[in-house]
Design a protein that fits this description.
The protein is an alpha/beta fold. The chain has two domains: 165 residues, FAD/NAD(P)-binding domain (3-Layer(bba) Sandwich), CATH 3.50.50.60; 120 residues, FAD/NAD(P)-binding domain (3-Layer(bba) Sandwich). Helices cover 24% and strands 28% of the residues. The protein has seven helices and 19 strands. It has a five-stranded parallel β-sheet. A three-stranded antiparallel β-sheet has the order 5-6-7, with no helix packed on it. Strands 14-15-16 form a three-stranded antiparallel β-sheet, with no helix packed on it. α6 links the parallel β12 and β13. α1 runs parallel beside α2, α1 packs parallel to α7 and α5 runs parallel beside α6. The chain is elongated. The two termini are 25 Å apart. The chain binds NADP nicotinamide-adenine-dinucleotide phosphate.
Length: 292
């Protein structure tokens, strides 16, 4: 959305394509604590709405559509949609990332019936119940904190004996007496039936001991994978598939830029995504001036 905002302000004929809601992953969070300018934090949905309103005010055009492929062969690039085709002089790919799956027995079958990848979406279903959060990164710990507003107990299951999350986020979780930590354990399978999840089988990383944790909900936050499947192979990417750019957001294909979580980068946060978007739009503008 920031790329769109900057593109519209520079009076490019810019169209933002979005397959879900404007705000992307932000819409799956409750509150943002680390975006500068909001000392008390800011509601994630409200922030998305503000940025969207600002971009629209500057004339950004938008369309709900799914991009299924890109043809980057010519000077004019083609964007292949599920229901048609568009042409553009330049493309900024800001398609973000999606949550990884655990890949254990029961996960696929019980998704939507106790297995979830979004606490803000599903936490209210677990009022007064015991749930598990799998993962030890920023997302897992922030979502565990959110779940404590509804669940009676939140068990955080992490495969190492130390969390990965930022210290300030960890501190909040350690101080919350509704959260308990089950460390150095992995999930072997998720148990349940028609009525939903009944529990997890856990496996000790050091001793391979199996144990059962009875819970009615499992929230999986074990990292992210890039939404880059629609991007052709000529755009270089790193091993997990994040798009490689230079520091001005240019990919290996001239006229194609990338911004935000879909990029190969060190810090995936709103503040860095916003910076990427502004740089990508500025560089796209320069590319069009130089080439058309
Ligand atoms: P992440 O930082 O990659 O953490 C993933 C966690 O899941 C790690 O603790 C990892 O364990 C664990 N894990 C990975 N695969 C696993 C598996 N197969 N089984 C069990 N555990 C597994 O991912 P994230 O938390 O989704 O965060 C993604 C990015 O967004 C990060 O850059 C993060 O900083 C950022 N983010 C920032 C904020 C914020 O600033 N407030 C909020 C959310 C996300 P190991 O630690 O052992 O590798």
């Amino acid at each position: 959305m920031t790329a769109g905002l900057y593109a519209a302000r520079s009076r490019m004929n810019a169209l933002l394509l979005e397959q879900m809601g404007f705000g992307g992953q932000l819409l799956t969070y409750e509150k943002v604590d680390n975006y500068p300018g909001f000392p008390e934090g800011v509601g994630a949905f409200g922030l998305a709405e503000l940025v969207s309103a600002q971009a629209l005010k500057f004339g950004l055009k938008t369309r709900n559509a799914e991009v299924v492929g890109l043809d980057l062969g010519g000077a004019i690039k083609k964007i292949i949609l599920a229901d048609g085709e568009l042409q553009a002089r330049t493309i900024i790919i800001a398609s973000g990332a999606s949550p990884n799956k655990l890949g254990v027995k029961g996960e696929a079958e019980l998704t939507g019936r106790g297995v979830s990848y979004c606490a803000v979406c599903d936490a209210p279903f677990y009022r007064g119940q015991e749930v598990a959060v799998v993962g030890g990164g920023d997302t897992a710990i922030e979502e565990a904190l959110y779940l404590t507003k509804f669940a009676s107990r939140v068990h955080v299951i992490h495969r190492r004996d130390q969390l990965r999350a930022t210290p300030v986020i960890q501190e909040k979780a350690f101080q919350n007496d509704k959260i308990s930590f089950i460390l150095s354990k992995t999930v072997a399978d998720i148990k349940g039936g028609q009525a939903g999840v009944e529990g997890l089988t856990l496996c000790g990383v050091k001793d391979s001991q199996l144990s059962v944790l009875p819970v009615t909900g499992v929230f999986v936050f074990v990292g992210i994978r890039p939404n880059s499947a629609f991007v052709p192979a000529e755009v270089n990417r790193d091993r997990p598939g994040f798009l490689i750019t230079d520091q001005e957001m240019a990919t290996s294909v001239p006229g194609v830029f990338a911004a935000g979580d879909v990029r190969s980068k060190l810090l995936r946060q709103i503040v860095t995504a916003v910076g990427d978007g502004a740089t990508a739009a500025f560089n796209a503008f320069r590319y069009i001036e130089d080439h058309f």
